[in-house]
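Page 42, continued from yesterday. The earlier attempt failed because a stray header line got pasted into the input along with the sequence. Redoing it now with the clean sequence only.
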Amino acid sequence: MDARRRQLIAQISDLHIRPPGQLTSGRVDTALALKRCITALNRLMPRPNLVAISGDLVDSPSVEAYDHLIALLAPLEVTYAALPGNHDDRALMRAALPGCGYAHPTGPLNSAHAIGAVDVILLDSIVPDAAHGELDPQTLAWLDAALGASPTRPALVFVHHPPFVTGISDMDEINLRNSGDLAMILDRHDRARLVACGHVHRAIATTFASRPASICPAPNLSVALDLGEHSPLSFTIEPPAFHLHAWFPGDGFGNVVTHWMPIGDVDGPHPFFDSKGRSL
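This time it went through. Structure tokens are written below.
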């Protein structure tokens, strides 16, 4: 395998930035969490080719919150692109992040990015004033056309709301409502090799439409893992992390491997062997 041809797409999600000095949910410093996340991203070697931010950039949309977000993202040394989540506002986000290559001058904030041999497609699934997601007809038509425009290049698809059940019932109530429409389009285009989501603040892996699908953990808080319908919905403070999607060339459309990447200092790396090749 030619390592020079591989592409690395880092995914961060659910940043929930508030105006300076405010805590999310009354106790979580999401700004500090994002700073630590950016430090971890900047340490990665080799560097990712792109950072995809998969929604909920702010906690409650306002000009002040987005201004704070942009200031926090400024030290990131890798190009980034973003899609909105249910906590975002399309107009405010478009104004705050005008360089994300949106496919439409108004309406959904969909975008497509050619990253080396791979296309990264970001979908807008938000429903204004609602927590659940839906891909509107304009987005579905655009996705079908975007995937059909280049049948030989692999594509990675990002969307905030998961199109599959996680077992966390309160979150499943507000996932993507028209997942069948998305599956029909993906079934027509083999080049879509991954569906990567956010929204649930947990690292989750499954399949959707016969391809790998995942949910990215958050850098700040986690939705509590409750598979027994024990309401109310709550959160925990778990080790923060993000995803690193590595695409490798190979037969057909190549292969995608997703790595869970911890945020913060870790002990190591330490060698397994000494200078003579002996096990330590």
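Notes: The longest strand covers residues 241-248.
Reminder to self: strip header lines before submitting.
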